[in-house]
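__Protein archive entry__

___
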Amino acid sequence: MEILLDTANIAAIKKYVDVINLAGITTNPTIVKKEGKIDFFNHMKEIRQIIGPDAKLHVQAVGKTRDEFIQDAYTIWDKIDKDIYVKIPATEEGLAAIKTLKNEGKRITATGVYTEFQAYMAMACGADYIAPYYNRMRNMNIDAVAFIRNVANQIERDHSNSKILAASFHNVEEVNNAIRNGAQAVTMGPDVMADGLGMPAIEKAVDDFKSDWESVYGKGSSITALASQEDLK
């Protein structure tokens, strides 16, 4: 299972790199727009430095034609780094670009996926990751759970190297459902990550543990403080 963060916000990335072992970062033009008119290439390089060389950075090509996608892909690899997974929409033109680039051994994520058919075509083109838009699918009355389950089953039957990178989540339960039904990777915004780790019940349990400890060993006491007192004896 791979957990990625869907953001280009430097502060959020620095925060969660210290919290969990992030498998990587995903970005797209809409996410980049939230950061304002940034120095795009240097910003992506900074993200790479923060997450390290082993984590996966996904950056989206911009365009509508096969040639535009391919040109952007090579610019991304040249200006940022060669190990980036370039995201290309699973349209007819996009699939043509994915096929070409995968034949050259490049790292590619098929994005903008709403249907099983798109996913199977992306698999046939050799895409490393297939990124379905979970919440957007639900808003269009598409059964996102069935999609993930069926595509995951097909990946297993084919012994395919493609992975489902589920995206577009609005809440924690959507993330749970994607993982539960076979998504090998999920990417979520910092808001969803914060909601999942910041439940009031979790915080209350932590406060209760601290209160119970202090009721026995004194306010402000900790295990380390207790050990220090023992060492002084």
In short: The chain is about 55% helix and 15% strand. The chain has a mean pLDDT of 94.
